[in-house]
Specification:
The structure holds two protein chains of two kinds.
Chain A lengths: L2 H21 L2 H4 L4 H13 L2 H5 L2 H14 L5 H36 L10 H4 L4 E2 L7 H15 L7 E2 L5 E15 L2 E8 L8 E4 L3 E8 L7 E4 L20 E7 L6 E7 L3 H5 L4 E7 L11 E10 L9 E4 L10 E4 L3 E8 L6 E5 L4 E6 L2 E9 L1 E4 L4 E7 L4 E7 L19 E7 L2 H4 L4 H23 L5 H11 L1 H12 L1
Parallel strand pairs in A: 3-6, 5-10, 11-14, 13-21
Antiparallel strand pairs in A: 1-4, 2-3, 3-4, 6-8, 7-9, 9-10, 11-12, 14-19, 15-18, 15-20, 16-17, 16-19, 20-21
Helix pairs in contact in A: 1-5, 1-6, 11-12, 12-13
Chain B lengths: L1 H25 L6 H30 L13 E3 L16 H7 L8 H15 L7 E2 L5 E15 L2 E8 L5 E7 L3 E8 L8 E3 L23 E7 L6 E6 L4 H7 L2 E7 L21 E10 L9 E4 L10 E3 L4 E8 L6 E5 L4 E6 L2 E9 L1 E4 L4 E7 L4 E7 L19 E6 L1
Parallel strand pairs in B: 3-6, 5-10, 11-14, 13-21
Antiparallel strand pairs in B: 1-4, 2-3, 3-4, 6-8, 7-9, 9-10, 11-12, 14-19, 15-18, 15-20, 16-17, 16-19, 20-21
Helix pairs in contact in B: 1-2
The chains are: A alpha+beta, B alpha+beta.
Chain lengths: 491, 413
Amino acid sequence: MTNDQLWIGTGCMIACILGFYLYNLHSLLWGQHLTRWLRQLQRSARSNRFLTLIPVKTIALLVLCLLLISLPSQPMLAQSGSSLANFSTSSIATVALTLHAARSEQASTRDIILNEPPLATNAITPGVLDADTNALSKAAIQAQNQAARNMMNEQALQPKVLANGTKQFTLTAAPLVWNLYEQKNVQGWGYNGQISGPLLRAKVGDTISIVLKNELPEPTSLGFSGISIPADMGGIPQHSVAPHASFQYTFTITSDMVGTHSYFSTTDMDKQINHGLHGVLLIDPAQGKEYPDADVNALFDIGSFVVDQKVEENVFTLNGKPYPNSPELSIQQGQHVLVRIVNSSAESFHAMHLHGYTFKLVAQDGHHLNKPVAMNVISVAPEETVDIEFTANAPGTWMFHCHILDHTMNPDDDADEMGGLMTNFVVHGTETDSSKPDDTMSSMSSMSSMSSMSSMSSMSSMSSMSSMSSMSSMSSMSSMDHTSLMNEMAR
Amino acid sequence: MMEQLLIACMLLLFTWMIIKTIKQISSLHIYEPHAWKQKIDRVVIGCLLMTVLASWLITTSSMPTASADRMPDMPDMDASTTGTTTSMSTASSTDSSSTASTGADFNLTDTAMKQQNQSAVRLMNEQALSPTILPDGTKQFVLNASTFTWSLYPGKVMEGWGFNGGIPGSLIRVTVGDQVDIVVNNHLDEPMTVHWHGLQVPNAMDGVPGMPNPAIQPNGSFDYKFTVTKQMVGTHWYHSHYDDDFQVDAGMYGAIIVDDQPATQANQSTTATPASPSYDVDKLFMLGATKVDGADPENVFTINGKAYPYTPQMDIQKGQRVLLRLVNASAEDYHAITLDGYTLTIVAEDGQPLPDPQQVSVVSIAPSETLDVAFTATRAGDWWFHSTIASELSNPDDTADNMGGMMTLVHVK
């Protein structure tokens, strides 16, 4: 059953329920207060009259609607989904409001205080709500995209060093407006105003204290993957932090914690993580680096959102941004690259594929493998982290994307446009490295000249070929030109 | 049929309600205000329910014409065994034959279906596409992308998109040191590319639209040229990278096997010889998936393009050492595979040999991953080779039996 059908069905059923209530809606119809209607409803429920008021027609319609939902799916249903979804959500909102009013009235009469969050549409759908398309200025969107790039370059949050040497990080969980792609702004939740949250980085031997301030409308808490910390710091929901309260997660970094880990909300996880409450925790050894050989370190935190009132995750992000806003990695040819990948999706596995290279899996969840495994697709489970490495010996722009191919599309883009869980690794050619007496390299360089020849020859047969392609293939012929061109483009 | 019946029911209810409403209004008595109130309520209810019904009906009836976007699933057609003979697009399909197969003729004859099933067996046996050797020694392969009718399981055919008239496309088998020229002709209505998944080809040959070469336009063609390096040894695959969620599931994929030693190329067109002397039998299973009946998650699961009972079955002699190459060519789904009665050893991942081969009963394989598994046929019998994800073991709307999807039999004699 597709989501759209579910929505249509729910809409129809809710309309029927509304109709049922309206049968008893004398007072409301005649301009009286809602509460009087409710009282009348209660009275009628107690009296026998209620039974006579049960509408046979409505029940018949209900059954009919159920039948309709159970129909085998039709391709055209999806088309109607959007129009009917609007209708059904509005009716859901109405029902939610009336129910809420009824509940609060009952509560006041019985002196019970309900701690529930206010009922709104986002309490029914797990996803994020759209924000106004003009809610963010261009500068604000650029700042968000820059934050994603900074995270890729492993720029960490600076801690405050307390008198006893404890490093204190402050994470404020608060609602924010987050730009995903083009005009798509959503009402996300983030730590310190960004999705993914800021990178936390500490060394073995440090005592760190993470202050979680909750500015959300509901309780939240922090959990950490892949590290053993004291039980009372584990972020179990019992320790959740109430709105406008805060909590300090204090623990000492031990040597078994070295590596890539993640932090995330552990309260109402499905919703809160997919609203943006996740981030990365990097633990370095006491001295030196975890990977001393790496020339380039890159960090990608995979996240996801549920937009457009759907039920399943439908926007996938790298450091909070789907393609084309995802951060692009720039590498010089010959550099040794280490990429840390964290899957902070609440629900989905991902199969990350890098074009043009066979990389090595060197660590999983921070644990180094005894023998690195060569591959070109790495499967990452939710909360799992992997470290991969490769030497960038082939110049060009190489795609790095999830091979679950509906994860590389943004929901309302055209089918042909790429989006979602994808970015490019741009390997800039250098003169010195291309002359290396490397087996694969020599074949590569001979190939690049061949390839340019072939594309030139096929130019004549293909009218649609742009001059850009011939330019870039020509530039790959002389690596010097290529470098300067790429540098210009980078600038 | 069911749908029409329901609409008819709804129309009946609709008219009945209108009549009721008119009756209610006509029976109003101006001197009984209390009764008047009640009746007005019912009228209001009637109107509300009618609005719901009307909006439902209007959207249902206007939907077929309002299909501006193409749905990401395959249109499936009636599989009629008595229909006229369809010209099966063969390896040498021309423009005319491919455009003919995009027409309304979706029927497949029994012989055509058997031919298709036989092609799945040939792929399992790793019978590769024969190249043309050019004067300079370059091996030239031709891949024609076109649409055709493809049968999935009894009673179900779909509009397949594929290379050289089959799903998966022709197997390309080359050796280290080969100069390769793969000519891709696009006879589709949509642009396409070919990405050589797992082969470290030059950037311009990588087959990603616009990076840097644009996609191959309809009726266009492109020469993918590269030299086969040592890195490429092993099991890999190729697929379109344009509109890939749709095109891959429609069938735009195929396998590439790269051998280290040229000796295995001697009789590649008839029977495949194992890539390594440590195996007696070398087999290939491409695990695919597709969407039929307008479903959004993938709902037909295939081995070499066919769902059980049309999946190719494997015959091996007792005692033979088997290398089984697995490719997950599904656009969206993970798979988990088991061979009843046997423990499998994963020896390579994405074509790269594992430093420590791993013994498993269930092989988990991510989308686009390739795994080489090995086993020695020590136990005679007919063994099920199947997905362990239970939802992948049936075919949609297949009433004949409750088995289907990603399963087949391995006969050890």
